[in-house]
Structures are given as structure tokens and as C-alpha cells.
Specification:
Helices cover 40% and strands 17% of the residues. Helix 3 runs parallel beside helix 5, helix 9 packs parallel to helix 10 and helix 9 crosses helix 12. The C terminus is likely disordered. The strands form 7 sheets. The protein has an 8-stranded parallel β-barrel, surrounded by 4 helices. Strands 9-11-12 form a 3-stranded mixed beta sheet, covered by helices on one side. Strands 1-21 form a two-stranded antiparallel ribbon. The two termini are 19 Å apart. The chain is globular, with a radius of gyration of 21 Å. It is an alpha/beta fold. It has one domain: Glycosidases (TIM Barrel, Alpha-Beta Barrel). It binds beta-D-galactopyranose. Beta-D-galactopyranose binds next to loops.
Length: 473
């Protein structure tokens, strides 16, 4: 059967300012710039974000390559630490305004719809040192001011906006699991940060609604939904999965779409004296200003089992008290990244949005495969023969297509990422792009998956003959 996608389906990919631009001409450091300055040894091969994939200098030719791949849309982000000179007054940096204007204009001229995100883990480090970053509601206000400048400057041409990318990662990385600066383990702060990020999103949406009078602009949030699967059907494992779902997905999904935090989650936080500080007025804003549409990043499932140790144990409160990670025997893995490959989850996500979240419009805002040392797959012409990435996309798109056939309201698919880019503390360890990047020369070459993607985007359809998966599932 021909797997055709809906009309005007978004085909493209996602990147972010901090991972692609490089630090060129930036007046302020974001948390990652700073963390790398402090501890380069914590980054793979000691490679930091200074050059990234050189997008600041090479955006024109980069965008030409994406045009060549038939992209009709691209998501990136505006760096707060680049656009704003003075965070308190919101005065803007003229070189940054020029840069983002040129990027946006070039995209439009090439038929690539600009999809702009405002926060991709990259808070200016000064705001962490001065106010405690997202722990502080002052920073929420400053973020709204930054968003205001973005809408004023670029809102005439950018019609698709997102407030945050994967806000749960800020909570987990910075405040629970120590993989992002400031690398704390502090359950109470973590929950306040989660609340403040939700509040910031709602306040930016409020501002957006006040500022936008034309009906063709939309705003949403990008969440990494990792569907939770219990190890077994036992009541204990199911309860563990239920609580994991509350923390990892619903903590952001419910307020974003329904305007409310799950009651059960609030009760649990109260019982443990880790509930965030909120006001009635703030909760009313969260209630009223929900998203127009949703971006879903999906990489891998989350499998859990009942915890070995009672959640009532004494010690620092952290959400992972309620569940233990579970490794499914015989699971399929991307061993390079350490992530399970489970394409069916994309179908499960789609149906869950349909059933539980009013079938809100959404798109796959990231999906992809990070592979190390891809030079080993280069053919004699220097093209990376990444058959595994084609299989990965085919399998995920097949499930996505099935979900759309069953009524899922999905309007696009963006791969992570167009051009191999810098990935936080993993730096350039794993490559995700449709286009490879030689980080020593910045020479960029389309991979085999790029040519495949081009055809799919052009036809708006999965190729019929290309279903010889290397691995069956
Ligand atoms: C996502 C994140 C991206 C990128 C990707 C692959 O979680 O949004 O910024 O790093 O993972 O590592």
C-alpha cells in the first residue's frame, strides 16, 4: 500500500542555536558556554560549543543544502544569550538582529518555513549566577521580555513559535541526574524549576496572544515524550509506570494542553513537602494560556518496574524513588547512544494524544539516531552509507502513518538533525545528521539518508520499494 502523508505535511529537521551557530560574536555565555569554560574535560574529546557546526558563518550554504534535500520547514532556536545585550531592559544586540533576520529571510526565500524555538537548555549563565536561573520567578519575567523582543523583531515573518524544547531535561539534567550544569541533586528545587518553566511558557503564550492579531501565527511547546511501559502487568509495576508517567511526561504535557497539573502529582508532592510555590494568579494564567499545537520529540521508550527499595525510605527526595529502570531482555538497541529502538512507541504516543489530549494538532519535532564514528560507513566517494538511519526513519514513519490513518492529528516529521551538530556534553561523539560535517574542515556532505529523505519529502510518501529492513521487529 502506498504510504502517502497528509497535504502540506512538514518535512524537515530540527537543530538549535547553541548546537549549530558557534559562539561567534556572542556577547553573553549561556550555561553550556560557561560549563565548557570551567570544565572542558567533562565534554567528549574536550570539544565545546565554540564552533559547533559553524551555522553563524555558513548558514547560507547550509540552508542551500537543506533546500536541496527538499525541506519545507526547519526548526532552530534564537539564543537568548545572543539576541539580548541587557537582560533587565531587553535591549537587543544589533549583530544578532542582523544574523537572525538574514537566517529567517534566507529560509523563506528557499521555501523553508522557519520554526523558531525560544529556549533550548541555553539560559544565559549570568541569570543563573544572579538569580538562580529557572529556580527564580524573576528569570521567568526576563524570559517573557526576551520573547517579546523576538515577536517584535521576527513575528512578521515567523509564524511558528515554540516556548521551550524538552523542559523536563532542564529539570532532570540540572537538578536530579547531574548531566547538565548546575548538576545538583535537589528534588525540591527540581519541582520549583519545573513549575517555573511551565509558568514561563504560559506567560509567553499570554504575551503572544496579546501581541498577535493575525490568525495565521501559532505557538506551542516541544516535549520529549518517552512513553512509559511497565515491566509486567503486575499491579506494582503498573503503579510504578503510572507515577513515572506523571513525572516524566505529564508534568509538562497536562499544563501545556489542559492548563492544569495532574492532581495526583500535586498531592504526592505535597505529602513530601516538595510542592512548588505558586499563586492563584499564576495558576489562572497556566489554566488560560495553553498551547495551540505540540511538538513531540521521540527517541526511545521508558521501561520501568516497581522499585526495589520502598519509596518511603529516608534520604533526599527524588522522583525516581517510585520506580526503577527496567531493561527488557532481547530489546533492540542503538548501542552507540545506549538507547532502545522501539518504533511502535510513536504510534502509542499518537493514540494517547488522540484519546487523552483532545487530538490536538502535533508534529514529530525530533526523532533520530546518534551513531559514533560514522566514517566507518563511508563509501569510496566519501558519502556515509547510513542504511541504519533510513531503516530507523522508515520504521518510525510507518507507525506514524498508521496512526494518522487512524485519525491522529499529526502534521509533520522533523528528524534530529539536518547537519551533524554539537550535542551538549556528548559534543560530537554521536552523529545524527542527514548531512555529515567534518568538524576539522567544516566540509559538509550529504549522507545516503539525505538522498532518501529528499525523495520522501518530495513525494510526500514513503518509497514502496524501500521496505527491506535490515532488522525486523
Ligand atoms: C534531544 C535534544 C537535542 C539533541 C538530541 C540528540 O534530547 O533536544 O538538543 O541533543 O537530544 O542528542
Amino acid at each position: 500500500m502506498v504510504k502517502k502523508f497528509p497535504e502540506n505535511f512538514w518535512w524537515g529537521a530540527a537543530t538549535s542555536g547553541p548546537q549549530s551557530e558557534g559562539r561567534f560574536n556572542k556577547q553573553h555565555a549561556n550555561v553550556f558556554d560557561y560549563w565548557f569554560e570551567q570544565s572542558p574535560e567533562e565534554f567528549y574529546d574536550q570539544i565545546g560549543p565554540d564552533v559547533a557546526s559553524n551555522f553563524y558563518n555558513s548558514f547560507e550554504s547550509d540552508l542551500s543544502m537543506m533546500e536541496e534535500l527538499s525541506f519545507n520547514s526547519l526548526r532552530t532556536s534564537i539564543q537568548w544569550s545572543r539576541l539580548i545585550d541587557d537582560f533587565e531592559t531587553g535591549s537587543v544586540n544589533q549583530d544578532a538582529v542582523r544574523f537572525y533576520n538574514e537566517v529567517i529571510d534566507t529560509m523563506i526565500q528557499k521555501g523553508i518555513r522557519p520554526v523558531m524555538n525560544l529556549h533550548h537548555f541555553d539560559i544565559p549563565v549570568e541569570l543563573y549566577h544572579k538569580y538562580g536561573g529557572w529556580e527564580s520567578k524573576k528569570v521567568v519575567e526576563l524570559f517573557v521580555l526576551f520573547a517579546k523582543r523576538c515577536f517584535e523583531l521576527f513575528g512578521d515573518r515567523v509564524k511558528d513559535w515554540f516556548t521551550h524544547n524538552e523542559p523536563i531535561v532542564v529539570v532532570e539534567g540540572g537538578y536530579l541526574h547531574q548531566f547538565h550544569y548546575p548538576k545538583l541533586v535537589d528534588g525540591k528545587k527540581a519541582m520549583q524549576v519545573a513549575y517555573n518553566l511551565n509558568l514561563a511558557s504560559a506567560k509567553v503564550i499570554q504575551l503572544f496572544k496579546e501581541m498577535t492579531t493575525s490568525g495565521d501565527s501559532r505557538i506551542g511547546i516541544i516535549l520529549n515524550l518517552t512513553p512509559t511501559y511497565p515491566a509486567t502487568n503486575s499491579a506494582e509495576d503498573q503503579q510504578a509506570a503510572h507515577i513515572a508517567e506523571l513525572f516524566t511526561n505529564r508534568l509538562f504535557l497536562d499544563p501545556a494542553i489542559k492548563g492544569e497539573f495532574p492532581e495526583e502529582l500535586v498531592e504526592l508532592l505535597k505529602e513530601n513537602q516538595v510542592l512548588w510555590e505558586s499563586t492563584k494568579e499564576e495558576l489562572a494564567i497556566i489554566k488560560q494560556y495553553t498551547i495551540d499545537y505540540l511538538g513531540v520529540n521521540y527517541y526511545h521508550p521508558h521501561r520501568v518496574k516497581a522499585p526495589d527499595i520502598s519509596p518511603n525510605s529516608v534520604g533526599e527526595w527524588v522522583p525516581d524513588r517510585y520506580y526503577d529502570e527496567y531493561e527488557l531482555p532481547g530489546r533492540r538497541m542503538n548501542l552507540d547512544r545506549g538507547w532502545e529502538i522501539y518504533p511502535k512507541a510513536i504510534y502509542d504516543i499518537a493514540l494517547s494524544i488522540k484519546e487523552h489530549y483532545g487530538n490536538i494538532a502535533w508534529f514529530v519535532s525530533e526523532n533520530g539516531m546518534g551513531i559514533s564514528n560514522e566514517e566507518r560507513y563511508q563509501d569510496e566517494t566519501g558519502v556515509v552509507n547510513d542504511r541504519y538511519r533510513i531503516d530507523f526513519m522508515t520504521e518510525h514513519l510507518t507507525y506514524l502513518h498508521q496512526a494518522i490513518e487512524e485519525g491522529a492529528n499529526c502534521f509533520g516529521y522533523h528528524l534530529w538533525t539536518p547537519i551533524d551538530c554539537w550535542s551538549w556534553s556528548n559534543a560530537y561523539k554521536n552523529r545524527y545528521g542527514l548531512i555529515s560535517n567534518n568538524i576539522h574542515t567544516q566540509i559538509k556532505t550529504i549522507k545516503r539518508s539525505g538522498y532518501w529523505f529528499k525523495q520522501v519529502a518530495k513525494d510526500n510518501c514513503l518509497p514502496q520499494s524501500d521496505v527491506t529492513f535490515s532488522t525486523k521487529f
